[in-house]
């Protein structure tokens, strides 16, 4: 069974094992790969490690070290925000979030502070508060909004700016 870790030592291992020598700023698009896709890529990658000019023997990376590298590199996509705050502000209004999440101040009333939002805590919040939100929306005759992944990323980006711009 594969378990994803927080990948705290993944970046350090990526550098210390020599991966960063060739993969400095450019890394393959891991978000488009499954773990078996990563395995196939690594299999095919082995021939490059022995190509001209001669390279030293590839470093040994044990299973726990590979777990850390993959967790940092591959799973990080689940924790990063890449949305557009201006579009997020528009979605906040268009999806009727503003109907319940308003207060006396300039921004919405939300449980966390700006800069703390990511996909993981949005999933958690919806799991915990979704039924209550649905009940309130039904009471106010607001249809449940549907978000595409990019729209949620935009909303999160706006919330992380303090929802003021």
Structure write-up:
It is a single chain. α5 (85-94) packs across α7. The radius of gyration is 21 Å and the shape is elongated. The longest helix is centred in the last third of the chain and has 21 residues, at 119-139. The model has no long low-confidence stretch (mean pLDDT 77). The protein has helices at residues 10-16, 19-22, 35-49, 63-73, 85-94, 119-139, 149-160. It starts with 9 loop residues before the first helix and ends in a 5-residue tail after the last helix. It is mainly α and 165 residues long. The chain has 2 domains: 10-78, no CATH class; 85-160.
Structure at a glance:
This protein is 48% helix and 0% strand. The chain is built from 7 helices and no strands.
Q: Which tags fit this structure?
A:
48% helix, mainly alpha, 165 residues
Q: What radius of gyration results from the CA coordinates?
A: 21 Å
What is the oligomeric state here? single chain
Order of secondary-structure elements: HHHHHHH
Taken from the alpha-carbon principal axes, the silhouette is: elongated
Chain-wise SSE layout:
Blueprint: H1 10-16, H2 19-22, H3 35-49, H4 63-73, H5 85-94, H6 119-139, H7 149-160
């Amino acid at each position: 069974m594969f378990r994803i870790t927080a990948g705290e030592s993944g970046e350090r291992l990526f550098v210390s094992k020599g991966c960063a020598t060739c993969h400095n700023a450019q890394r393959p698009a891991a978000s488009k790969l499954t773990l078996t896709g990563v395995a196939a890529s690594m299999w095919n990658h082995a021939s490059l490690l022995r190509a001209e000019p001669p390279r030293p023997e590839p470093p040994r990376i044990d299973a726990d070290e590979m777990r850390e590298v993959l967790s940092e590199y591959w799973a990080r996509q689940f924790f990063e925000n890449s949305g557009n705050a201006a579009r997020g502000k528009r979605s906040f209004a268009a999806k009727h979030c503003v109907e319940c999440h308003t207060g006396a101040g300039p921004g919405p009333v939300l449980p966390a502070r700006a800069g703390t939002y990511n996909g993981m805590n949005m999933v958690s919040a919806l799991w915990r508060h979704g039924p209550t939100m649905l009940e309130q929306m039904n009471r106010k005759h607001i249809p449940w909004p549907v978000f595409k992944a990019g729209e949620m990323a935009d909303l999160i980006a706006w919330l992380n700016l303090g929802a003021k711009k």
